[in-house]
């Protein structure tokens, strides 16, 4: 299936590894020029080398930390220099530290709010005028299945990513008439380094082995396995496509059927 986005330009946040890299790679396979960003120059350079070697889309990269106050300005400048503009924005951020609601101090909330919510909204607002002018744009925000079924010991993530749900739905209704879609993609248990880190933290908290925690987790997934980054990336690329022009304001679960809510 031709997704109809060859030649488009995409900025993919937090794409040095994991879910962000999965979406960036899938977009590049459709002929998109992607700009990767993150805090590991070595990994970003290697990822771009691999994407460019595939000979479909094109990849560049920029070092950026969403916790920094000038991150939005830096990213916009890099996108203009390397892409010439942004047709597709993939909002993705690293996850906060595990913990309960009682562990959420005001300082932690403020710190992670800056990188996980404020910068995402500021960057999106900055790219909208150009998208409106050309009558086409895609905003895709990566969140978590915790926004529909709160995940134990991830109170910070459940809280901050949940804030993006109301924002995205509001935004989608405001920009739909301009040919712009705004969707969210919710990963379940996709096998990434982040999942390994969280399983390790849960194993320590529960006094169990990593193998025990992983086995119990998989047992709760109807598909009977963890998802792959490639599967997640393909779903993300579809939501960024021309083919998905009538899909907006939605939250797509990529979780193997794990979420129990309707």
Task: Output the keywords.
NAD(P)-bd_dom_sf; 8 helices; Rossmann fold; SDR; 2 domains; 262 residues; alpha/beta
Secondary structure elements and their pairing?
Layout: E1 9-12, H1 18-29, E2 33-38, H2 41-53, E3 58-63, H3 71-82, E4 88-91, H4 106-134, E5 137-142, H5 155-175, E6 180-187, H6 193-206, H7 210-219, H8 229-239, E7 251-254
Parallel strand pairs: 1-2, 1-4, 2-3, 4-5, 5-6, 6-7
Helix pairs in contact: 1-8, 3-4, 4-5, 6-7
Strand content: 5-15%
- Measured as a percent range, the helix fraction is 40-55%
Number of helices: 8
The string of secondary-structure elements, in order, is EHEHEHEHEHEHHHE
Distance between the ends: 29 Å
CATH architecture designation of the largest domain: 3-Layer(aba) Sandwich
CATH domain topology of the largest domain:
Rossmann fold
Q: What's the number of structural domains?
A: 2
Structural class: alpha/beta
User: Strand tally, please?
Assistant: 7
For the report, how would you describe the main beta sheet? 7 strands, parallel
Describe the structure.
By secondary structure, this protein is an alpha/beta fold. The protein has two domains: 9-189 and 231-252, Rossmann fold; 191-226, no CATH class. 47% of the residues lie in helices and 15% in strands. The chain has eight helices and seven strands, in the order E-H-E-H-E-H-E-H-E-H-E-H-H-H-E. A seven-stranded parallel β-sheet has the order 3-2-1-4-5-6-7, sandwiched between helices. The mean pLDDT is 95.
């Amino acid at each position: 299936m031709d997704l109809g986005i060859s030649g488009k330009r995409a900025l993919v946040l937090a794409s040095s590894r994991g879910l962000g890299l999965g979406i960036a790679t899938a977009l590049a396979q459709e002929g998109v020029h992607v700009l990767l960003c993150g805090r590991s120059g070595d990994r970003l350079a290697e990822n771009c080398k691999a994407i460019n070697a595939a000979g479909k889309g094109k990849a560049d990269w920029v070092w950026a930390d969403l916790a920094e106050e000038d991150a939005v300005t830096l990213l916009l400048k890099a996108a203009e220099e390397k892409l010439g503009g942004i047709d597709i924005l993939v909002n993705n951020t690293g996850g906060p530290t595990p913990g309960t609601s009682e562990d959420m101090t005001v300082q932690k909330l403020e710190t992670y709010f800056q990188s996980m919510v404020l910068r995402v909204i500021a960057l999106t607002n900055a790219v909208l005028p150009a998208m409106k002018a050309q009558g086409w744009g895609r905003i895709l925000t990566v969140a978590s299945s915790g926004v529909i079924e709160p995940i134990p010991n991830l109170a910070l993530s459940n809280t901050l990513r949940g804030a993006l749900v109301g924002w995205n739905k509001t935004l989608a209704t405001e920009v739909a008439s301009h040919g712009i879609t705004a969707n969210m993609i919710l990963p379940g248990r996709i096998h990434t380094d982040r999942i390994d880190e969280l399983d390790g933290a849960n194993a320590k908290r529960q006094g169990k082995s990593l193998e025990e925690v992983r086995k119990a987790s998989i047992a709760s997934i109807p598909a009977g396995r963890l998802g792959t980054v490639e599967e997640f990336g393909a779903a993300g690329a579809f939501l960024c496509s021309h083919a998905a022009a009538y899909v907006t304001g939605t939250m797509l679960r990529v979780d193997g059927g794990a979420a129990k809510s309707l």
